[in-house]
Amino acid sequence: MLGMGVVGSGVARALSQKSDSLANQIGANVCLKSVLVRDKTKQRSFEIGQNLFTDNFDEILERTDIDIVVEVMGGEHPALEFILAALESGKHVVTANKEVMAKHAPDIFAAARRKDVRVLFEASVAGGTPVVSPLMRDLVANEVVSIKAIINGTTNYILTRMSSEQIDYKTVLKDAQNLGYAEPDPTNDVEGIDAAYKLAILSTLGFRAQVKDSDVFCEGITSLSAKDFQYADELGYAIKLLAISSRINGEVQARVHPALIEKDQMLAKVDGVLNAIEIETDLTGRVLFHGPGAGSMPTSSAIVADIINIGRNVAGNAAYLDPVRLSESIKVQSISDLQTKYYFRLEAKDEPGVLAQIGSALALNKISISSFIQKGFDPEQGTAELVIMTHRATERSVQSALKDIKDLDVVARIGNMIRVSE
Ligand SMILES: NC(=O)c1ccc[n+]([C@@H]2O[C@H](COP(=O)([O-])OP(=O)(O)OC[C@H]3O[C@@H](n4cnc5c(N)ncnc54)[C@H](OP(=O)(O)O)[C@@H]3O)[C@@H](O)[C@H]2O)c1
Known about the structure:
Blueprint: H1 6-17, H2 19-26, E1 35-36, E2 53-54, H3 57-62, E3 68-71, H4 79-88, E4 92-95, H5 98-115, E5 119-120, H6 132-138, E6 144-150, H7 153-165, H8 169-178, H9 187-190, H10 193-207, E7 217-218, H11 226-234, E8 237-248, E9 251-262, E10 274-281, E11 285-292, H12 296-316, E12 339-340, E13 342-349, H13 354-364, E14 369-378, E15 383-390, E16 393-394, H14 395-406, E17 411-420
Parallel strand pairs: 1-2, 3-4, 4-5, 7-9, 9-17
Antiparallel strand pairs: 6-8, 6-10, 8-9, 10-11, 12-16, 13-15, 13-17, 14-15
Helix pairs in contact: 1-12, 4-5, 5-10, 7-8, 13-14
């Protein structure tokens, strides 16, 4: 096992506590043979024999009595190199590493195929909630039409509290950090990068062609204010950080951003640190996977399941099934081509003709308004807050309209623009 932090300790605990059950499931014992860490003297949350620790990866690579390498160290490098070297040396790999899988899946699959070994990565998306294996196996008869998901527990926790308590982002972030739900440096979570890694993996499996993290449009949650939640609620919506990918005319569009979602939709009801993934396909229609997206023991459930699956192959000397066959390539659409409804919050002067000017800027960009509401008035600034909902429009025209609106003398500030999930 490479790494013994939050996840690795959970895996070691599960392997130890469930050893009889695992032996029954597999038909052979699973033994933890060696654990790579940086600091061999560090106290771990689950105790294993001190002699199992090493800080030298080559020791693991060279051992012929090791069948499976479990990578739970995280980060792109050297995890990628270790995974590839393990595969090249004929060892099977189980990994929880979303960054490596989002960026390098085709190289990893190719190395596994070349050496006739398996690589499984259930824990790389949604922790303890199964979704990778269902996409690879149970839904394989389907064409995936779209994937819509809440796959970052930290941001879902923050947004849930902003919504229910009407408090601002910074206050909730601090609380989340104190409770251990957010990292001291929360960038990867709050900027949507972590969700983009996971969406890239799900899209690659769903559309059977590589979708990289850099193909995913990414916008985080830091510009959301308590007011957005209040107005969204009045309009019948929740706000969630959604990861959405869809197949449109043979192309893929993949995006992570805050979205207004109607309150009666299933994803709107997913609160706190939980994850949920809704997959729409041609044969099944919609299926929803819902559950814990992180944590030591839930994540170890996914990893140990992968170990059991590979263990059965090893113990039974069975042929290894090629996990994923990817087509050559798929065109990824720009966010500018997105067509959806939009929510704008603006501060504008409270004087006659303002609505006409904003309406005309929108009309010139071929955007029609579905509702226009005047909210609070600020007597000091002489401005009023306006909330506009549009009919379907393209992102390109919305960006152009926002520029035009910003240039209007009567507009003091554009508070926010949020896409609506249809
Ligand atoms: N935490 C979760 O709930 C969760 C859920 C799903 C997926 N994952 C994924 O699981 C992986 C591990 O996450 P984690 O939360 O367990 O991380 P973590 O607590 O930071 O543990 C990382 C472990 O890897 C070791 N390590 C890191 N770099 C190393 C290097 N260059 N050489 C040797 N050892 C090294 C560390 O050794 P030392 O202890 O000696 O420093 C530590 O034991 C990541 O890919 C993460 O994205 C995590």
